[in-house]
Amino acid sequence: MKIAVVAPEVFPVPPIRGGAVEAILEELTARLGAHDVHVFGIADPDLPRREARGHRTYHRWQPTVMDRVMLSSWKLPWKRSGSIQYYRPYSRWVAARLQQLRPDVAQVISRMSYVPWIRAALPTTPVILSLHQLSSLDASALWTPERIAECDLITGCSQFLVDEVLRRYPATEGKVAMLRNGMDPARARPWWEQREVRERMRGQLGVESGLAVLFIG
Question: Checking CA distances to 27, which of 35, 53, 152, 185 falls within 20 to 30 Å?
Fold first, then answer.
């Protein structure tokens, strides 16, 4: 399959500047080796505008001076995340390239505001909107029945998020599914497989005995 993945406009992919969603995308697309994967994202000085890495091709958008001026104030209508004009230059750039690429499926990450542009470019291609945070639901003006109908599938990374989508926007009934974030079992091994490492870390932290809780967030 030819798969297109549209990242948010915040951080580049691969996640050289950080970014949880970007890290997930990099890991996910790495595991789609049997397919022709195209990742669309924002440009970075340390990355080429277009880059091929094995089965993946990265397409990166470089905003112009005018784009930066247009996006310089939250008071401007096209900067409001509740409008389909939100980050319009990036949305239109992605849509134009998808129209040329003609993928078999397009996955949009977190941004309902991108969906209308991509749907217009790909009227018959399945479009998946993947949600990773509750804030994606806040722009109620975007979540109209008409916009929801432009998505073939909406995924949430937890049951809580799926339930909240359905609660806020009943028109999503029948379109929402849970798609958990994955993990690499080779990197996330249980402590009983790494007893020496565990004991060494407890010693370094001064936790010789008793319960130790580590929170990463």
Answer: 152
Between vectors from CA 131 to CA 142 and to CA 95, what angle results, nearest 5°?
A: 60
The DSSP bridge pattern shows strands 2-6 and 105-109 to be: parallel
Strand order in the sheet with 2-6: 50-53, 56-61, 36-42, 2-6, 105-109, 127-131, 153-156, 176-178
- pLDDT bin (cut points 50, 70, 90) of residue 65 is confident
Amino acid type, 50: R
pTM above 0.85, yes or no: yes
Q: Where are the alpha helices (DSSP H) in 81-131?
A: 88-101, 115-121
Cis peptide before 14, with omega less than 30 degrees from 0?
Answer: yes
Q: Phi and psi dihedrals of 55, rounded to 5?
A: -80, -5
Q: 3-state DSSP: the chain helix, strand, coil percent, rounded to 5?
A: 35, 20, 45
> Rounded to whole angstroms, how far apart are CA atoms 44 and 141?
31
Residues 137/131, Cβ–Cβ less than 8 Å:
yes
CB 137 within 8 A of CB 113: no
Sign (positive or negative) of CA dihedral 3, 101, 60, 109: negative
If pLDDT is split at 50, 70 and 90, which confidence band does 173 have? very high
Q: State how far the Cα of 62 lies from the Cα of 182, in Å rounded to an integer.
A: 30
Assign residue 210 a region (left: φ > 0; alpha: ψ between -120 and 50; beta: otherwise).
left
CB 115 within 8 A of CB 129: yes
